[in-house]
Amino acid sequence: MKARLCVLGLGHVGLPTAVVFASKGFSVVGVDVDERKVDLVNKGISYLHEQYLDEMLRDAVSRGTLKATTDAVSAVRNSEAVIIAVNTPVRGGVVDLSQLESALEYVRRALRVGSLVAIESTVPPGTTAGLVKRILEESGLRAEEDFYLAYVPERVAPGRAIEELLTVPRVVGGVGPKSTQKAIELYSNVNPRLYATDATTAEFVKLIENSFRDLNIAFANLLALISERLGVDVYEAIKLANTHPRVNVHWPGPGVGGPCLTKDPYMLFKTGKGVFGSDIILLARRINDYMPLHTIEIIKTALRENGISIKGARIAILGAAYKGGVSDTRESPSRIVVRELLNAGADVIVYDPYTSESFGAKRVSSLEEAFKEADAVVVVTDHPEFKRVDLSGVGKLMRHKIIVDGRRVFDPYVAHGEGFKYYGIGFGKRLTFNDNR
Fold it and tell me: Could you give the count of Cα atoms lying within 13 Å of 131 in the half-sphere of its Cβ?
């Protein structure tokens, strides 16, 4: 058996992390304040939809390499290494570190000489070397002398957490060289692709990664808005632009969701507040936050042009998850789209094969139910199942054959050929009977 490890926080990052280390022979104790999660883990039952996680969790629990508890102090006291993966939400543009501070208090009370503490939660640069180090040293022990402290940002996407924990390169930053080396020794047991740096740089890297993506998506969404004014197809334009060897524009959509891209840019902005040009980060957030509302405007246009009142219109929403192929609905654009449609008096139906969430609308359990008697179908999530829809079949179920496509799930010309009125984000063209390709 390898070293004893404690993971504080059994969410989308913590549980897969605990399972992966347990699969490598570590004796792992997972800690969470949610008694339901603790009970499920101890029964070998996963509450997350992650590839490979169910089987690996059952195996680790049955072999005795993983157990869960709500007793953080005891778990820390009996471990040589502690990984903290609690939530650090942003509210009103300000990061809330209360869960991290609570976890650190437990660690401080039970910290042992020679232990490693690794922070995986997203935090503002300087947090590990400042707040975290200060709280832990209230134990009387000193970082780099009595214990080791590092920041190791997570790089996992929902649905692929296990695979990415094992294969995606990780950045490891200690508060000193000894801490960096100690963290590398731990994480190399599950992933050999490690890059050493200091803690503050590692924290900065995490914010760079997600803010870059948010900025790129905002640029793509801006291009979509301009394309609609020009009367061109933004997807065609981006594909052509991306043939340039030094250009890689992302795709537009109905908004940005998930736990990272919607919050990490605010941490970066606050870090760089006052630096010339830092407002571009907030502008990108504003653009991406606007896109669900723009989707509503497209829906209203589609209904109006076809003589349909939004009040009482039956509108089917395809997708509640924030992105395709996952069940995660955190900060999903669908929440806003559904809310606005309900407020306008529409009869809203939601179908998502990955989650039961419907954001207050009626939920249906099949594509056929979603399309039946619908006045319009709105694609918000690009689930692979939606891309395989037979439009000729489902079109016969609809009251009006209208598609509002936020993710370019359907080819506009194929949909048009099947008799649909096609509207989409960034699709500025108006198809006529002569436009079939």
Answer: 15
